[in-house]
Design brief:
By secondary structure, the protein is an alpha/beta fold. It has a single domain, classed as 3-Layer(aba) Sandwich (Rossmann fold). About 50% of the residues lie in helices and about 15% in strands. The chain has a 7-stranded parallel beta sheet, sandwiched between helices. Helix 1 (about 20-30) crosses helix 8 (about 230-240), helix 4 (about 105-135) runs parallel beside helix 5 (about 155-175) and helix 6 (about 190-205) crosses helix 7. It starts with 8 loop residues before the first strand and ends in a 7-residue tail after the last strand. The structure holds nicotinamide-adenine-dinucleotide.
Length: about 260
């Protein structure tokens, strides 16, 4: 399938590692100029160096997606370097597995700000440029937790449900400009994020972490976790004109763990 992404310009938040890193690599491999927007500069620069050696056009902009000034600077820097923005992937996120009763207000705000408010903060300054171009693709990383809350992940679930609602509203608002807005909902991937969940669950329950993971995988019909490329492939598809009639969707990539 020809995606026709060569020459496009994309911003990927959370692009330094994990799912975001795989999306950056996938887009760069298709000839897209990619801006890696992440709070961890070393990993982002390392990735950029590697991709540039392979001939890709990559820019790193240190960004805390929960800060308005950083989001605005990200857009300004992208336009200065590449002149336009065709694709925005909001992949930055954090998790903490903790019982609801133990979530302090500061912790609640941190997770909601980084996972949900960030999508508002980063997307808002991008949109005028997509509207002017009368085209664009916005892809937000939600989660299986964006459709079904899990014990220990109350604030994470609240943030990921918010991302799906925002995705639907924005898809309706921006349809007249031919801008597609979709979400992707991964199930479980063994990135730094799930390693953190395993640590917390194992400590809380006394069950060895590998057993915790095996128990979760056992509930998945396909009996395996997802790989970062599974998610990146769907994001690439949603970034292209191949999916031009899909908007407002929240696509499950979870091995059948949840079907809707
Ligand atoms: N791993 C999973 O099983 C899973 C499942 C469902 C959804 N997701 C979602 O996928 C996305 C990527 O997750 P991942 O598994 O790759 O996690 P990860 O922890 O490996 O990567 C997250 C990235 O976001 C960056 N980030 C965190 N806070 C930031 C901030 N304030 N500003 C800018 N960047 C920031 C991190 O530095 C990191 O590079 C997240 O939105 C996550 O919620 C992951």
């Amino acid at each position: 399938m020809e995606l026709g992404l060569d020459g496009k310009v994309a911003i990927v938040t959370g692009g330094a590692r994990g799912i975001g890193e795989s999306i950056v690599k996938g887009l760069a491999g298709e000839g897209v100029s990619v801006v890696i927007a992440d709070i961890i500069l070393d990993a982002a620069q390392e990735l950029a160096k590697k991709l540039k050696r392979e001939g890709a056009r990559v820019l790193v902009v240190k960004t805390d997606v929960s800060r308005k000034a950083d989001a605005e600077n990200l857009v300004t820097a992208t336009l200065k370097e590449f002149g336009r923005i065709d694709i925005l992937v909001n992949a930055a996120g954090v998790v903490r597995d903790v019982k609801f009763i133990d979530i302090e207000e500061e912790e609640w705000d941190r997770v909601l700000d980084i996972n949900a408010k960030s999508v508002y903060l980063v997307t808002r300054p991008v949109i005028p440029h997509m509207i002017a171009a009368r085209s664009g693709k916005i892809i937000n990383l939600s989660s299986r937790s964006g459709k079904e809350g899990q014990a220990g992940l109350a604030h994470y679930a609240a943030s990921k449900f918010a991302v799906i609602g925002l995705t639907q509203a924005l898809a309706k608002e921006l349809a007249e400009y031919d801008i597609n807005v979709n979400a992707v909902c991964p199930g479980i991937l063994r990135t730094a994020m799930w390693e953190k969940i395993l640590d917390a669950r194992s400590e809380r329950t006394g069950i060895p972490r590998e057993q915790v993971f095996a128990d979760v995988v056992a509930t998945i019909p396909l009996k395996r976790p997802q790989e970062v490329t599974d998610i990146a492939n769907v994001v690439l598809f949603l970034s292209s004109e191949v999916s031009r009639n899909i908007t407002g969707e929240s696509i499950n990539v979870n091995g059948g763990g949840r079907m809707d």
